[in-house]
Amino acid sequence: MFTGLVQGRGEVAAVEPTGDGARLAVRTPLTAELAPGDSVAVNGVCLTATRIEDGVFHADVMQETLRRSSLGDAAAGGAVNLELPLRASDRLGGHVVQGHVDGVGVVRDVAEDGFSRRIEIAAPDEVLRYVVEKGSIAVDGVSLTVAALDDDSFTVSLIPETLERTTLGEAAPGTRVNLEVDVLAKYVERLVVPR
Question: Which domains does the chain show, CATH number per domain?
Fold first, then answer.
Protein backbone atom coordinates (compact mmCIF):
# COMPACT_ATOMS: atom_id res chain seq x y z
CA MET A 1 0.00 0.00 0.00
CA PHE A 2 1.18 3.52 -0.85
CA THR A 3 0.07 7.05 0.00
CA GLY A 4 0.67 8.89 -3.27
CA LEU A 5 3.43 11.01 -1.72
CA VAL A 6 6.28 10.62 -4.18
CA GLN A 7 9.62 10.03 -2.46
CA GLY A 8 11.82 10.68 -5.45
CA ARG A 9 12.24 10.67 -9.17
CA GLY A 10 14.08 7.93 -10.97
CA GLU A 11 15.57 7.65 -14.43
CA VAL A 12 14.69 4.74 -16.68
CA ALA A 13 18.04 3.07 -17.33
CA ALA A 14 16.69 0.47 -19.75
CA VAL A 15 13.54 -1.15 -21.07
CA GLU A 16 13.86 -4.63 -22.53
CA PRO A 17 10.73 -5.93 -24.27
CA THR A 18 10.26 -9.68 -23.91
CA GLY A 19 7.69 -11.99 -25.40
CA ASP A 20 5.95 -12.06 -22.04
CA GLY A 21 6.09 -8.36 -21.13
CA ALA A 22 9.08 -6.12 -20.44
CA ARG A 23 12.00 -5.78 -18.06
CA LEU A 24 12.40 -2.30 -16.63
CA ALA A 25 15.55 -0.92 -15.01
CA VAL A 26 15.35 2.31 -12.98
CA ARG A 27 18.25 4.31 -11.53
CA THR A 28 17.48 5.92 -8.16
CA PRO A 29 19.06 6.63 -4.76
CA LEU A 30 16.07 4.78 -3.26
CA THR A 31 17.82 1.48 -4.08
CA ALA A 32 19.59 1.90 -0.71
CA GLU A 33 16.20 1.06 0.87
CA LEU A 34 15.21 -1.73 -1.53
CA ALA A 35 15.85 -5.47 -1.51
CA PRO A 36 14.82 -8.07 -4.08
CA GLY A 37 11.14 -8.88 -3.56
CA ASP A 38 10.25 -5.40 -2.29
CA SER A 39 7.42 -3.40 -3.84
CA VAL A 40 7.98 0.00 -5.39
CA ALA A 41 5.47 2.25 -7.17
CA VAL A 42 6.73 3.47 -10.55
CA ASN A 43 4.49 6.23 -11.91
CA GLY A 44 1.81 4.78 -9.67
CA VAL A 45 2.24 1.17 -10.79
CA CYS A 46 3.18 -1.30 -8.06
CA LEU A 47 6.14 -3.37 -9.27
CA THR A 48 8.39 -5.89 -7.54
CA ALA A 49 12.13 -5.29 -7.49
CA THR A 50 13.75 -8.44 -8.85
CA ARG A 51 17.38 -7.33 -8.77
CA ILE A 52 19.29 -4.37 -7.37
CA GLU A 53 22.79 -3.38 -8.46
CA ASP A 54 24.82 -0.18 -8.75
CA GLY A 55 21.94 2.16 -7.86
CA VAL A 56 19.53 0.49 -10.30
CA PHE A 57 16.56 -1.75 -9.54
CA HIS A 58 15.07 -4.12 -12.08
CA ALA A 59 11.42 -5.17 -12.34
CA ASP A 60 9.37 -7.37 -14.64
CA VAL A 61 6.31 -5.69 -16.16
CA MET A 62 3.60 -8.11 -17.30
CA GLN A 63 1.39 -7.65 -20.35
CA GLU A 64 -1.65 -6.68 -18.24
CA THR A 65 0.34 -3.80 -16.74
CA LEU A 66 1.61 -2.70 -20.15
CA ARG A 67 -1.98 -2.66 -21.46
CA ARG A 68 -3.49 -0.78 -18.49
CA SER A 69 -0.77 1.76 -17.81
CA SER A 70 1.59 4.14 -19.55
CA LEU A 71 4.63 2.00 -18.65
CA GLY A 72 4.49 0.64 -22.19
CA ASP A 73 5.65 4.13 -23.24
CA ALA A 74 8.70 4.07 -20.92
CA ALA A 75 12.03 4.66 -22.64
CA ALA A 76 15.64 4.90 -21.49
CA GLY A 77 16.41 8.35 -20.11
CA GLY A 78 12.81 9.09 -19.13
CA ALA A 79 11.89 10.28 -15.64
CA VAL A 80 9.50 8.36 -13.37
CA ASN A 81 7.88 9.04 -9.99
CA LEU A 82 8.87 6.59 -7.25
CA GLU A 83 7.36 5.68 -3.91
CA LEU A 84 8.23 2.92 -1.47
CA PRO A 85 5.36 1.19 0.34
CA LEU A 86 3.83 2.57 3.51
CA ARG A 87 5.21 1.21 6.78
CA ALA A 88 2.76 0.59 9.62
CA SER A 89 4.42 3.39 11.62
CA ASP A 90 4.26 5.99 8.79
CA ARG A 91 1.82 8.88 8.51
CA LEU A 92 -0.85 8.56 5.85
CA GLY A 93 -0.26 11.98 4.34
CA GLY A 94 -1.93 11.41 0.97
CA HIS A 95 -4.65 8.82 0.53
CA VAL A 96 -4.76 5.02 0.23
CA VAL A 97 -3.10 4.15 -3.09
CA GLN A 98 -2.73 0.51 -4.09
CA GLY A 99 -0.55 0.86 -7.15
CA HIS A 100 -3.29 -0.80 -9.25
CA VAL A 101 -3.82 1.56 -12.18
CA ASP A 102 -7.45 1.89 -13.30
CA GLY A 103 -6.72 3.52 -16.64
CA VAL A 104 -4.68 6.01 -18.61
CA GLY A 105 -5.65 9.66 -19.01
CA VAL A 106 -4.31 12.29 -21.38
CA VAL A 107 -3.36 15.82 -20.34
CA ARG A 108 -5.71 18.12 -22.23
CA ASP A 109 -4.69 21.52 -20.91
CA VAL A 110 -2.12 23.12 -18.61
CA ALA A 111 -2.66 26.62 -17.19
CA GLU A 112 -0.79 28.70 -14.65
CA ASP A 113 -2.95 29.80 -11.69
CA GLY A 114 -0.96 32.08 -9.39
CA PHE A 115 1.83 30.00 -7.87
CA SER A 116 0.00 26.79 -8.76
CA ARG A 117 -0.64 25.06 -12.08
CA ARG A 118 -3.96 23.58 -13.16
CA ILE A 119 -3.88 20.43 -15.26
CA GLU A 120 -6.98 19.17 -17.05
CA ILE A 121 -6.90 15.43 -17.78
CA ALA A 122 -9.23 13.64 -20.19
CA ALA A 123 -10.14 10.28 -18.68
CA PRO A 124 -12.14 7.22 -19.72
CA ASP A 125 -15.69 6.76 -18.41
CA GLU A 126 -14.67 3.72 -16.35
CA VAL A 127 -12.38 6.03 -14.34
CA LEU A 128 -14.54 9.15 -14.25
CA ARG A 129 -17.48 7.27 -12.71
CA TYR A 130 -15.48 7.16 -9.44
CA VAL A 131 -14.14 10.73 -9.51
CA VAL A 132 -15.76 13.41 -7.36
CA GLU A 133 -14.93 17.07 -6.93
CA LYS A 134 -12.69 17.55 -3.87
CA GLY A 135 -12.07 13.80 -3.80
CA SER A 136 -8.71 12.08 -4.15
CA ILE A 137 -7.12 10.60 -7.26
CA ALA A 138 -3.61 9.34 -8.00
CA VAL A 139 -2.05 10.70 -11.20
CA ASP A 140 1.22 8.97 -12.11
CA GLY A 141 1.33 7.88 -8.48
CA VAL A 142 0.83 11.38 -7.04
CA SER A 143 -2.04 11.82 -4.57
CA LEU A 144 -4.04 14.84 -5.72
CA THR A 145 -7.35 16.55 -4.98
CA VAL A 146 -9.85 16.92 -7.82
CA ALA A 147 -10.43 20.67 -8.29
CA ALA A 148 -13.06 20.42 -11.05
CA LEU A 149 -14.94 17.75 -12.95
CA ASP A 150 -16.94 17.59 -16.18
CA ASP A 151 -18.32 14.88 -18.47
CA ASP A 152 -15.03 13.67 -19.94
CA SER A 153 -12.23 15.17 -17.83
CA PHE A 154 -11.16 16.38 -14.41
CA THR A 155 -8.79 19.11 -13.26
CA VAL A 156 -6.17 19.06 -10.51
CA SER A 157 -4.13 21.95 -9.10
CA LEU A 158 -0.45 21.41 -8.39
CA ILE A 159 1.51 23.35 -5.80
CA PRO A 160 5.16 24.30 -6.49
CA GLU A 161 6.44 21.41 -4.31
CA THR A 162 4.59 18.87 -6.47
CA LEU A 163 5.72 20.58 -9.68
CA GLU A 164 9.35 20.40 -8.55
CA ARG A 165 9.43 16.91 -6.99
CA THR A 166 7.40 14.94 -9.54
CA THR A 167 7.23 14.37 -13.28
CA LEU A 168 3.93 16.28 -13.36
CA GLY A 169 5.96 19.49 -13.52
CA GLU A 170 6.80 18.55 -17.13
CA ALA A 171 3.28 17.46 -18.08
CA ALA A 172 2.08 19.05 -21.33
CA PRO A 173 -0.97 18.57 -23.53
CA GLY A 174 -0.84 15.05 -24.95
CA THR A 175 1.09 13.53 -22.02
CA ARG A 176 -0.32 10.12 -21.02
CA VAL A 177 -0.69 9.61 -17.27
CA ASN A 178 -1.63 6.66 -15.07
CA LEU A 179 -4.85 7.09 -13.07
CA GLU A 180 -5.94 5.29 -9.92
CA VAL A 181 -9.22 6.23 -8.31
CA ASP A 182 -9.88 6.12 -4.59
CA VAL A 183 -10.48 2.43 -3.84
CA LEU A 184 -13.18 3.37 -1.31
CA ALA A 185 -15.40 4.58 -4.17
CA LYS A 186 -15.19 1.15 -5.83
CA TYR A 187 -16.11 -0.63 -2.61
CA VAL A 188 -19.07 1.69 -2.01
CA GLU A 189 -20.35 1.02 -5.53
CA ARG A 190 -20.00 -2.73 -5.03
CA LEU A 191 -22.02 -2.53 -1.80
CA VAL A 192 -24.87 -0.34 -3.03
CA VAL A 193 -25.38 -1.42 -6.66
CA PRO A 194 -27.60 -4.51 -6.93
CA ARG A 195 -25.96 -7.44 -8.68
Answer: 8-83 (2.40.30.20), 103-192 (2.40.30.20)
